[in-house]
């Protein structure tokens, strides 16, 4: 396995991260959000739960057929959220993987039929891509897995309104936009074990590509250098990106590793569906490290994932109070 060893910090050894775990964003309208991501993009709502740090808001998870690690795009609902003013210190684009180049032709037609703004098919770092936005200007892209040789994709849900062969298979590269790129580059390579594998130009700005673990579409972070003002987040912005860790034992090693590196962090956090660690890098990007398991079938069977409000056991005694604060979503 890939190993990182830092003898100057107590000799803590950790296995390399396995790729992207999930991306969590903000929405002001949960009902419309569910419609867009399930009926238009055809992803499966695998978990309808609450933000464990604020149970008055929904936390919605869209993914492949069962919410495999690396396939989850999640949303916190904040009804009063204002618009996003894009800028630096942000996760400025989330991409979603599809099978091959030909599949993008299907999505161009689908986007046109649904009046979704998009770029058409473009080339980005050797891959065919379509950039688009959702109804709240969430910045998204579809990326072809035609040439992917890295982290395996997930499996689209067979009951999706999108043909299974054309469906979204998981998360692709995330793009960060930062004012001081060298600081983010350093965290990715010297702390998280990513490798610098190249650059490309995007809207006149240089983007540096970093890869981790097995690499490929599901294991890249693209860092865009920008001198814009700092982003003011709101609906349509991204809250954090999470990277994959094998299991709880490995995550606890990462807690020690990040602490010894001198970064303030959350310590070990129990999320029930996975275990987590959070810390913020110098440009303000919030990173999470999350375990691959236990997964979303911990409290619901595969066939009915996401159909009811799911609460971790430690919130179950508060179900009546929590449900009273939430507007039902069908």
Automatic annotation (TrEMBL):
Q: Does the keyword Oxidoreductase apply?
A: yes
| Gene3D superfamilies, A to Z | 2,3-Dihydroxybiphenyl 1,2-Dioxygenase, domain 1 (3.10.180.10)
- Annotated GO MF terms: dioxygenase activity
All copies of domain VOC, residue ranges: 19-145, 170-292
Q: Entry's Pfam families?
A: Glyoxalase
What are the entry keywords? Dioxygenase, Oxidoreductase
Q: Which PANTHER family match?
A: RING-CLEAVING DIOXYGENASE MHQA-RELATED, RING-CLEAVING DIOXYGENASE MHQE-RELATED
Q: What is this protein called?
A: Ring-cleaving dioxygenase
What is the scientific name of the source organism?
Paenalkalicoccus suaedae
